[in-house]
Amino acid sequence: MDYMALSAAEWQQEYDKVSAEYESWKAKGLKLNMARGKPSKQQLDLVSGILTALTSAEECVDSGVDARNYGELKGLESARKLFADILGCKTSQVFAGGNSSLQLMYDTVSKAYTHGLLHSEKPWCKEESVKWLCPAPGYDRHFKVTESFGFELITIPMTENGPDMDIVENLIKDPSVKGMWNVPKYSNPDGIIYSDETIERIAKMKPAAPDFLLMWDNAYCIHEFDGEFVPFKDILSECEKYGNADMVFEFASTSKVTLPGAGIACFACSEANMEYMTKLIGIQAISFDKMNQLRHVKYLQNKEHTLALMKEHAKIMKPKFDMVVETLEREIKPLGIASWHTPKGGYFVSVNTAPGLAKRTLALAKEAGVVMTSAGATYPYGHDPLDSNIRVAPSLPPVEELEQAMAVFCCCLKLAALEKSKK
Ligand SMILES: Cc1ncc(COP(=O)(O)O)c(C=O)c1O
User: Fold this and answer.
1) Which atom belonging to ligand 1 lies closest to the Cα atom of 265?
2) Which atom of ligand 1 is nearest to the CA of 36?
3) Atom 16, ligand 1: which residue's CA is nearest?
4) Is 100 touching ligand 1 by the criterion CB < 6 Å?
5) Is-cis flag, bond preceding 398, omega within 30?
6) What is the DSSP string of 303-368?
């Protein structure tokens, strides 16, 4: 049944049926949450070994460094090496920080704003205007960071291969365009992996701004839930190859490997940037939590061992994603009212409804007790010009709850589409 081609009588019949279904969902008083990409309790339980990774004073000494004391601003050598191993860069290029990569990202932008970057003529707060490229749909918290500094956010359409580089290459001719967000592997929310060609075009960009800041958030670099690990390019050496070594800062964390909010995070950058940044960071902190860094090193060991753990996460995640996609295929596909990506990793399924349905669908879902990421959140300023993108986050609820939540979601999407197409 194609919803776009219903006769008036067919519309009425379908509307009566879907409304009745919706009312019965509402009557159940559900309380379900598919709003944020949080690991499930089962995933947290999977990594309980980290709770006892350090049990004695002797174990707290790592290559002669006592993790219990101040020191090693850039992080424990072994933690930096672990991230370097995963990211494919050099240990000397890694700064292992605290529990959140988002905090490191904020701090990098903040330092550009207050002090300027290595190649800045002046701090960005002294610039008349700062513009920022935001591939969208994208990660709402990225957009909020740059919005909070008063930058002008420019939406870049996403393609199947990453951001539309024709548009990017044109916009960076403007010297007030100072940077760009990227989630290059299993992008949030589309689950897109940037193609090699896109990565090359990004690495060889020649922005007019001498201090252009390429934010490379590799949050999902090892987060396959379907199939084998997909290797990715080391963006630091790619940029260096084209004379852009200082343009890029890469970020990663163990938030969705071990414990979100209690993991470890890093940035990776050129040695010149490292020297510049550590001078500034050394004013705000004496050192980060090396005990947690050491716990992670002991528990995760190396890339190979970490990838083995990710396979265990995948066993929990895959049935949930399969269920979401199967439900959409069965309930929504024949109606012609939405399309979606079928990711093999990351934490989201990105649904694009026919224009003008996202807000209404999510309002209906909320009324029926299903909370989802708010409409528009995946666009700069929270404004989705087509009111179409909905981010489904299936990781947190157990499968049985997810089944209900998806049934409610599909019912709401149908109802929103019917309301809009009333004859
Ligand atoms: C793309 C992306 N980057 C960063 C984060 C947050 O990472 P962290 O916990 O390291 O701050 C998330 C969390 O959902 C994310 O989706």
Assistant:
1) 10
2) 14
3) 188
4) yes
5) no
6) HHHHHHHHHHHHHHHHHHHHHHHHHHHHHTGGGTSEEE---SBSS-EEEEESTT-HHHHHHHHHHT
User: Using CA atoms, how far apart are residues 9 and 163, in angstroms rounded to an integer?
Assistant: 43
Q: For the chain, what percent of residues have pLDDT higher than 90?
A: 98
Decide if 74 contacts 293 (C-beta within 8 A).
Answer: no
- C-beta separation of 122 from 116 below 8 A: yes
CB neighbours of 55 closer than 8 A, spacing ≥ 6? none
The tokens describing 166, both together, are 């024709």
pTM, rounded to two decimals: 0.97
Distance CA(389)–CA(376), nearest Å, equals: 7
Phi and psi for 253 in degrees, rounded to 5? -155, 170
One-letter amino acid for residue 360 of the chain: R
Nearest CA to ligand 1 atom 6: 102
Asked whether 361 and 390 are in contact (CB, 8 A), the reply is yes
- Candidates 133, 98, 365; CA nearest to 253 is 98
Q: Check residue 4 and give its pLDDT.
A: 85
Cα separation of 126 and 310, whole Å? 44
Q: Cα–Cα distances in Å, from 43 out to 39, 274, 310?
A: 6, 34, 10
The rounded distance, in Å, linking the Cα atoms of 153 and 361 is: 26
Quote the CA–CA distance of 121 and 197 in Å, as a whole number: 31
All residues at 6 or more sequence positions from 115 whose CB lies less than 8 Å from its CB, including other chains: 123, 280
Query: In whole angstroms, what is the distance from residue 13 CA to residue 185 CA?
Result: 44
Cα distance between residue 268 and residue 94, in whole Å: 4
Both structure tokens of 190: 């589309």
Residue carrying the six token digits 């903040």: 110
Question: Residue 180: helix, strand or coil by DSSP?
Answer: strand
Structure tokens at 102: 């988002």
DSSP 3-state assignment of 243? coil
396 lines ligand 1 (CB under 6 A): no
In this predicted model, what pLDDT tens digit does every residue of 94-141 receive, in sequence order?
999 999 999 999 999 999 999 999 999 999 999 999 999 999 999 999
Q: Where residue 36 falls among pLDDT bands split at 50, 70, 90?
A: confident
The span from the CA of 392 to the CA of 351, in Å, is 7
Mutation test residue for ligand 1: of 95, 108, 141, the one with most atoms within 8 Å of CB = 141
Burial of 250 (0-12, 13-18, 19+ CB in 10 A): buried
pLDDT in tens, 44-57: 999 999 999 999 99
Q: Are strands 32-34 and 370-372 parallel, antiparallel or unpaired?
A: parallel
